[in-house]
Each structure stands twice: as structure tokens, then as C-alpha cells.
Amino acid sequence: QVQLVESGGGLVHAGGSLRLSCAASGRTFNSNYAMGWFRQAPGKEREFVADITWTTTHYADSVKGRFTISRDYVKNTVYLQMNSLKPEDTAAYYCTADGPTSRYYYWGQGTQVTVAS
To answer: Which residues have CB under 8 Å from 84's CB, separation 6+?
Structure first.
């Protein structure tokens, strides 16, 4: 059974930093499978934040230059380094990974990030 477990969320003041981690188990996600992050703020739809494959990273415009996604293939883990955090970054952050034939098939339970002004 595939599991994605996020960690690293918390409360931080505006301008601060957090590093989210997502550890995958039950399946090895090699470079053919994208892994990434989405977020969902209260009352809003879930939105794309960033994803990564072996050669490519993509970011939402709202986080470009502030967030960095990276991946450790040995540890089967994806990270999201978040710098210069803003109150509008407050959301539950979800890790996701591709399935054999589906984009963003697997999902974690989420980790809460709260940025105080």
C-alpha cells in the first residue's frame, strides 16, 4: 500500500521559512514519476504549488523565487523549501505522486502551514 506522509508544517511569522518533507513508502518513485505539492486554503480550491521530475521543476507563479522543490531518490522523499513566507501562503499542503498511468494519483494527508502577519 502506497503512503505519502508529510511533515514540517507549523506556525511561522511573515518572512520566515519552513521546509516540508514528504516520505513515500510502498512504492519506489523513480525519475519517471513526478512528485509535487499542492495546497488548499480555507474556503478555496486546492491549487498547484510545485512539482519535480528528474529533469524538470515547475512552480506556481505565486511561489516562484521563494519556494524550491527537491527530491531524494534514495530516500524516496520530496521536499519543499519555503522562504519569504507570506500570510497568503497559509494553507494545508499536500504531497502528491504520479501513479503508473495517472498524474497525481497518490496523495498524502496534508500538513498545515500558518503564516502570521
So the answer is: 15, 17, 66
